[in-house]
Amino acid sequence: MKCPYCDTEMQPGYIKSARPIHWSAEKKLYFFLSDKDIPVSNRNDEWFGCFADALFCPNCKKCIVSMHTERR
Prior knowledge:
Elements: E1 11-17, E2 22-23, E3 38-39, E4 50-56, E5 63-65
């Protein structure tokens, strides 16, 4: 896929974390999930961490992330 910002070919990969990742419209000091937060990462195998498929542009350093939209 071409980057929508600079038209460079994007590299497939993953966003990884030891804990589940969520998107929120609000910046919070402490991590308390609300019903408005949207999961980004999967939770299928937390023993090995959480991940989400992502495309990375090496030119403009932007990512496009495939979100897991199941509410927990």
